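Re-running the complex after MR caught last week's input typo. The corrected sequence lines follow. Everything else is unchanged.
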Amino acid sequence: DAMVIQNPRYQVTQFGKPVTLSCSQTLNHNVMYWYQQKSSQAPKLLFHYYDKDFNNEADTPDNFQSRRPNTSFCFLDIRSPGLGDAAMYLCATSMVGGNQPQHFGDGTRLSIL
Amino acid sequence: DQQVKQNSPSLSVQEGRISILNCDYTNSMFDYFLWYKKYPAEGPTFLISISSIKDKNEDGRFTVFLNKSAKHLSLHIVPSQPGDSAVYFCAASGERGSQGNLIFGKGTKLSVKP
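Corrected-run output:
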C-alpha cells in the first residue's frame, strides 16, 4: 500500500544534542510537510517542500531545518533541541493543486532529557 | 489567534445515535475544509472534505455541512459506532493558494459508548 512512513516512531535525545527525524513516501506526491503537535494542541505547520522549493513558516524557529534529497524522502533536523521541542512531529504529503487532502504518517514522538 | 476553532474538547454519544462535531473559522479566504480522524499512536487519517462551492458532502455514514455565512462547519456521523471513538480534527485551507497548507483546530475527542 502506498503510504507515508516516519522513522523512528519514538526518539529520545539529550538537551542540545542534534536530532534528525525521517519521513518517506510511496505516493509520489509533490508536496511534503512537517508539523509539530504538542499535547491537546492543533498540529502546527513548520515548513513544507513543493518539489525542491522550501517554504518556511514565519514563526518556525531557526533551530528547525529540513532537507528533501529526493521526491520520496524528507528530513527534519533539530540543531539544538530544547525542552520545549518535546512534541509529536507529523509528516504529511499531498499533490499540488486545489482541494488535495494531505496524507499523514504516524508521527515521531520526540522526548528531550 | 486561532483561525480554526473546535470549541468542544470532548463529546460522548451512545452507539447508534448521531454524533455532531462542530468547527468554526474566522478567515473568509478559506475555501476548502477537511475532517481528519486520529486514533492514539497513529497519524491523522483523512475522512471527508468539502469545497466552499458546496454546502453538503456525504460519504456513507459521514456528512459534512458548511455554512459560509456563519463560518461554521459540522461533521455528522450516523449511526455512531464504537470504532468511531477517536479525536476528530477540523482543518481549512485556501489562504495560501494551491499548495494546500492546512490550518487545524485543536480537535474533539469523540467517545461512542456501546
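None of the earlier attempt is carried over here. The mean pLDDT of chain A is 93. Chain A touches chain B through 28 residues (CB under 8 Å).
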